Amino acid sequence: MAFGDVKTPQGLKELNNFLADNSYISGYEPSKADLSVFEALGKAPSGDFPHVLRWYKHIASFDATEKAAWGGSPLPQAAGAKPTVADDDDDVDLFGSDDEEEDAEAARIREERVAAYAAKKSKKPALIAKSSVLLDVKPWDDETDMKEMEKNVRTIEMDGLLWGASKLVPVGYGINKLQIMCVIEDDKVSIDLLTEKIQEFEDFVQSVDIAAFNKI
């Protein structure tokens, strides 16, 4: 698998023929061999060399950090003439590598990418599920001090509970109910427990109903 100067038409033709049956210059993962040929090309080839163009766009899609992590050895002859073989006993395939070394290198690159992805994902803030709840707090009668009732309700503090706006709503016979809004974190606040705590103010509160419940 040898080709000459990839800046020449002949070198590009030989590279195109090689990439017609191979995804990368060496092995089954991108390596420094790909990077050296990529840099030797300098720019994307014309459509006359479709396999080189496909390979060039793929290599270009990796960022500098990913390219720096590639293993293997660069090909100094990528922009020059084909390597010559002086002696059969000293024949060295500069484009190939031992299968075991290749598999180990591919596994290492995969592990590095998985670790990088996990680290990036771990930095994302966890989504906190919240709900908006509108409560109807009903008094015993028209003589109930509604301001004192609301004051007592707002004294309830729970991790993940935030009290909002409130108003008095007529229910008839001169009686008003307290409508009060709150926002809760679903994993921290139980609506059942919250209503029980409100009902503990039994001198003021007759009952508590959920008027509206919406996920935020």
Automatic annotation (TrEMBL):
Annotated segments matching region Disordered: 73-102
InterPro entries found in the cross-reference section: Arc1-like_N, eEF-1beta-like_sf, EF-1_beta_acid_region_euk, EF1B_bsu/dsu, EF1B_bsu/dsu_GNE, Glutathione-S-Trfase_C_sf, Transl_elong_EF1B/ribsomal_bS6, Transl_elong_EF1B_B/D_CS
Domain Elongation factor 1 beta central acidic region eukaryote residues, every copy: 94-121
Keywords: Elongation factor, Protein biosynthesis
Residue span, Translation elongation factor EF1B beta/delta subunit guanine nucleotide exchange domain: 130-216
SMART domains referenced in this protein's UniProt entry, alphabetically: EF-1_beta_acid, EF1_GNE
Chain intervals with Acidic residues compositional bias: 86-102
One GO CC annotation: eukaryotic translation elongation factor 1 complex
GO MF, any single term: translation elongation factor activity
Endoplasmic reticulum in keyword set: no
Family: Belongs to the EF-1-beta/EF-1-delta family.
PANTHER family hit by this protein: EF-HAND AND COILED-COIL DOMAIN-CONTAINING FAMILY MEMBER (PTHR11595), ELONGATION FACTOR 1-BETA (PTHR11595:SF21)
Protein name: EF-1 guanine nucleotide exchange protein
Organism per entry: Musca domestica
Gene name of this polypeptide: LOC101897687
